[in-house]
């Protein structure tokens, strides 16, 4: 099941945005746009909503290799949904300097969809960059803990990611460098940190 196919023009547009710093106002607007899109899709029915983005720290959201990582994430989601025989009712794609985002309204129970996606996030170093949230019809995120699964681990150490994020245990530069290394190893791209 191929969910999205990006045209050459869309890929070129993303490539042009690689390395550009995103103003805080744009990030706040992107968050509002994401919430609006989620509410709009959930109001049209379906059992659950997948909201897919990449975990890219810092003010530069499109690094060398992030467009390819996003496409790989879409491919993995599509393969998992196809294997589980979950029907996608509606799809949306947002491409901007604030990052890439995809939404899938799925005809399946949210807990089942979350259980399907967690192994994709945890199964490889690239998967650690995937942020695959699953929302129920009321817009509530399904957590790993609800399914008895362990929390996400930090990209740099093995502590829970939320603890490191809250305490700012690692600098943006360290995190961005590590993300760039994962992208370079996976896609053979130059290590362009964008900082």
TrEMBL record:
It holds the Pfam family CitX. One of its GO terms (molecular function) is lyase activity. It comes from the Bacteria. Its EC number is 2.7.7.61. InterPro entries: CitX. It catalyses: apo-[citrate lyase ACP] + 2'-(5''-triphospho-alpha-D-ribosyl)-3'-dephospho-CoA = holo-[citrate lyase ACP] + diphosphate. NCBIfam families: citrate_citX (TIGR03124), PRK01392.1 (NF002383). This is citrate lyase holo-[acyl-carrier protein] synthase. The gene is citX.
């Amino acid at each position: 099941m191929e969910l999205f196919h990006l045209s050459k023009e869309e890929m070129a547009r993303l490539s042009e945005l690689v390395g550009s710093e995103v103003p805080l106002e744009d990030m706040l607007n992107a968050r509002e746009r994401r919430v609006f899109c989620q509410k709009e899709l959930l109001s049209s029915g379906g059992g659950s909503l997948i909201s897919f983005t990449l975990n890219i720290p810092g003010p530069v959201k499109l690094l060398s290799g992030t467009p390819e990582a996003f496409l790989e994430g879409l491919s993995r989601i599509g393969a998992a949904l196809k294997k589980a025989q979950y029907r996608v009712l509606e799809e949306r794609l947002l491409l901007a300097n604030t990052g890439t985002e995809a939404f899938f309204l799925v005809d399946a129970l949210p807990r089942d969809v979350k259980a399907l996606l967690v192994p994709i996030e945890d199964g490889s170093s690239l998967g650690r960059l995937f942020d695959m949230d699953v929302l129920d019809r009321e817009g509530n995120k399904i957590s790993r803990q609800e399914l008895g699964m362990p929390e996400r681990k930090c990209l740099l150490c093995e502590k829970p990611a939320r603890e490191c994020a809250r305490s700012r245990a690692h600098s943006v530069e360290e995190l961005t460098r590590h993300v760039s290394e994962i992208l370079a190893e996976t896609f053979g791209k130059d290590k362009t940190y964008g900082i």
